[in-house]
Amino acid sequence: MNAPAKPSGTTYERAVHRLRRALGPVDVAGGRALTGGLYNCVHLFELADGRRLVLKSAPSAEAPALTHERQLLGTETIFHRLAATKGVSVPTVLHYEPAGPDDPGEWLLLDFLADSTWSEVGEDLPADGRPALRHRLGSALARTATATGTRFGYPQPVPGLQGDTWREAFTGMMHAVLKDASRFGSPLPAATDTLAALPDRFADALDEVSRPALVHFDAWEGNVVLTRDGDGGWGFGGLIDGERAFFGDPLAELVGLDPLGAAEDDPDLMAGYRSVTSDLPTTTPAARSRLALYRIYLALIMRVESIPRAYGPEHSTWLRSWSTERITQQLAVLDRLAAGQRLPSP
Question: Who's near 339: CB < 8 A, 6+ residues apart?
Answer without folding.
Answer: none
